[in-house]
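Budget justification aside, the reviewers requested a transparent look at the raw inputs and outputs of the sequence design task funded under Objective 1. We therefore reproduce one unedited record. The lines immediately below are the structure tokens for a 115-residue chain.
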């Protein structure tokens, strides 16, 4: 069955770094877009970063210059390197993947940034 397996979340001090990873499995069609969204308590889910065809990237203004998204095409895996983390980055981070026919979501991984 289709799975997006996320890893790398945790607790970190402000200014620290985390690296999230998401491995997609069971998807037959080509994954054109992979990325990350996040949702803080009481807030709407928002786009963090996406990567299209392994090269074109989009970032939320709030994370530009601090986060970097990349894709390991051989392993159908997407990574999010998060540097200079701030308390406002605290949220559940969700992996997503898009094919020509469907949009897939992971279960989410908690990122907590303390002051």
């Amino acid at each position: 069955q289709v799975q997006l397996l996320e890893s790398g979340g945790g607790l970190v001090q402000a200014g620290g770094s985390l690296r999230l990873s998401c491995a997609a499995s069971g998807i037959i069609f080509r994954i054109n877009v992979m990325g990350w969204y996040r949702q803080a308590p009481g807030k709407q889910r928002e786009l963090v970063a996406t990567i299209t065809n392994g090269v074109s990237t989009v970032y939320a203004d709030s994370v530009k210059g601090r986060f970097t998204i990349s894709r390991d095409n051989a392993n159908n895996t997407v990574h999010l390197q998060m540097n200079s983390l701030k308390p406002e980055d605290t949220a559940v981070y969700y992996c997503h993947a898009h094919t020509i026919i469907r949009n897939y979501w992971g279960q989410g991984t908690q990122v907590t940034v303390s002051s």
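The radius of gyration is 13 Å. The chain has no helices and eleven strands. Computational costs for records of this kind are itemized in the attached budget.
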